[in-house]
Specification:
Helix content: 25-40%
Order of helices and strands: HHHHEEEEHEEHE
Number of domains: 2
Strand order of the largest sheet: 2-1-3-4
Shape: globular
CATH class of the largest domain: Alpha Beta
Amino acid sequence: MLEDGNRSAADTLRQVCASVIMSDPATYSAAFLGKDNGEYVQYILNPEKWGGGIELAILSDYYKAEIAAIDIETTHLYVYGEGKGYDRRVYLLYSGIHYDALAVRGAEADGDDDESRDRTVFVPDDRATHQAVVALAKQLKQDKQYTNVQRFALRCAECAAGLVGAVEARDHAKATGHVNFVEYK
């Protein structure tokens, strides 16, 4: 499953995470997951929900590959599976809301939209790729291509209330039933 050009693996990745979590309720307890093991499994199987560090750690171990996620806002690199001797690494950009896989378009694919030729798996000690990823994250940070869900400014599209962050938006939605929000700067 961890191979170059594979963009349609979301359901399989969810299933892998769910299986690992279900198979080890001692490790993946409510204290660790923040909710009951079975409830968390249902959560992660929902295609409307997104995973995070827990899932990245599980997938790193399952596929025996490092998963290097760089946070655009801070440009901090988190490497899951580091030091475990894995000989493959994938890179993800984290926007504050979503993780996106990084791919390098092969020279033979120039002008071609066939993503199956994209290179998404690298060796962990590839300094040139590492430096390119960091440079890209810094450029995206400079361009403010991230969202800080704790501090982003929102306006309720139904009553025009100004809100800051996801917590205020959630509280407003609970109190008013309003669920349509617009981000503004």
